[in-house]
UniProtKB/TrEMBL annotation:
Lineage: Bacteria, Pseudomonadati, Pseudomonadota, Alphaproteobacteria, Rhodobacterales
InterPro entries reported in the protein's UniProt record: DNA_brk_join_enz (IPR011010), Integrase-like_cat_sf (IPR013762), Integrase_catalytic (IPR002104), Integrase_DNA-bd_sf (IPR038488), Integrase_DNA_bind_dom (IPR025166), Integrase_recombinase_N (IPR010998), Phage_int_M (IPR053876), Phage_Integrase (IPR050808)
Protein name as annotated: Integrase
Region of interest (Disordered), ranges: 80-100
Keyword DNA-binding listed: yes
Domain Tyr recombinase residues, every copy: 212-384
Organism domain of life: Bacteria
A molecular function (GO) term: DNA binding
Length: 403
């Protein structure tokens, strides 16, 4: 055995630039710029390998950066032992680093990173939690501590099987989010199976859950319900505006005074389900009745919101639904969109494109939509006036001519 420990701490610190052997293949390389590093030379399978052990710490500073002479000798002992077992210490170190990284990159960690990366695409930076909640409730409790590189289709199957048929929509969202997290991991350079979620779907089979449409009030009964909204409360006024405009509850609840210009209400794309992430906002032609409802709600406005909550923010998402529940109705607020669309089909001769545009639905192929540069605002204005006339007890045949 070659002599070991030939260097002293003093010599290592005071020696001029050059290369100094400590024995056993351990060398100290001192550079002219004042820096220094430890290098270990070993022979594996007849080939000499030179392995950097790290920066040399030769002073008495408390910095944790670098290896002292004692620490360098300990590291050299470890890697010489690896070389004696006919393993390449450089490759073995890389393997250990990958293993350590694998242990650090659990599903919990990568899911958080993926969520952070997508926040800019989500409403309110995802603070409401709807994007992350399916993962948080149904995936992370079981798989969160598992290295993401170890997750396969069987793990995903066992995790989502309990809700696959009973809570089909939630399971679908959880699977979708998990697929996004797996793709994020691949972008990080991790060795994940990008087909794991698709394979898991194959193992789980087709969901037995039968989707149910939101209960809707028949269009013939809408006038009686509208007439019953006789109190000028925020909830009833919000329901009236929802019925009159055919919008979902989100744009109604987030209506702002500065969005209204004359007889047109411009709803920001972020509040429209089909327009999120797109540049265009959605113009809503307001009937005389809708304008009257907004005028009734104006005294309640706070911080610019037309339908503020009692404490802060805007009217709760469930407020209108609970109102209809207390009336022991099967129908729900979202169902009035169906009431309106069925009325269009059965009681009017309005073109399909106009009726769908009123609901902010896309029609036709992508090419057709690219060449169609209209949102049918004037046609929708006449249509919504007819709908308002029907809702308030009229015939629904009145058409307001626009000059």
């Amino acid at each position: 055995m070659r002599a070991l420990h030939k260097l002293s701490a003093v010599k290592a610190r005071t020696a001029p630039p050059g290369k100094y052997s400590d024995g056993g293949g351990l060398w100290l390389h001192k550079r002219s710029d004042g820096g220094a590093q430890w290098v270990l030379r070993v022979t594996v399978h007849g080939n000499r390998r030179e392995m950097g052990l790290g920066r040399a710490k030769l002073d008495d500073s408390r910095s944790s950066d670098g290896l002292t002479l004692k620490e360098a000798r300990e590291a050299a002992d470890k890697w010489r032992s690896v070389a004696r077992s006919d393993k390449d210490p450089i490759k073995e170190r890389e393997r250990e680093r990958r293993e350590a990284a694998r242990e650090r990159h659990t599903l919990n960690v990568v899911a958080d990173e993926a969520f952070e990366a997508r926040k800019a695409e989500l409403k309110g930076d995802g603070k409401a939690g709807r994007w992350f909640t399916p993962l948080e409730l149904h995936v992370l409790p079981r798989l969160g501590k598992t290295p993401i590189e170890d997750i396969d289709q069987n793990d995903i199957k066992l995790t989502l099987a309990p809700i696959w048929h009973e809570k089909a929509d939630t399971a679908r969202k959880a699977m979708n989010r998990l697929g996004i997290v797996m793709r994020h991991a691949a972008a990080m350079g991790l060795d994940v199976d990008l087909q794991a979620t698709e394979k898991a779907k194959a193992l789980l089979g087709k969901s037995r859950h039968v989707a149910k449409n939101v209960p809707a009030l028949p269009w013939q009964e809408v006038p009686n319900f509208y007439k019953s909204l006789s109190e000028a409360t925020l909830t009833q006024l919000a329901l009236k505006l929802l019925i009159l405009t055919g919008l979902r509850s989100m744009p109604i609840r987030h209506a702002r005074l500065d969005q209204i210009d004359g007889e047109v209400w411009t709803v920001p794309a972020e509040y429209m389900k089909g327009l999120k992430g797109k540049a265009q906002d959605f113009r809503v032609p307001l009937s005389k009745e809708a304008l009257a409802v907004m005028e009734q709600a104006r005294p309640f406005a706070r911080d610019g919101w037309l339908f503020p909550n009692v404490r802060k923010g805007v009217l709760s998402d469930a407020t209108m639904s609970r109102y209809m529940e207390r009336l022991e109705m099967d129908a729900r607020p979202h169902g009035f969109r169906s009431s309106f669309r069925t009325w269009c089909a059965e009681a009017t001769d309005v073109p399909r494109e106009v009726a769908e545009a009123a609901l902010a639905h896309a029609t036709g192929s992508a090419v057709e939509r690219a060449y169609r540069r209209t949102d049918f605002l004037e046609q929708r204005r006449a249509l919504m006036e007819r709908w308002a006339d029907h809702v308030t007890g009229g015939s629904g045949k009145v058409v307001r001519m626009v000059g």
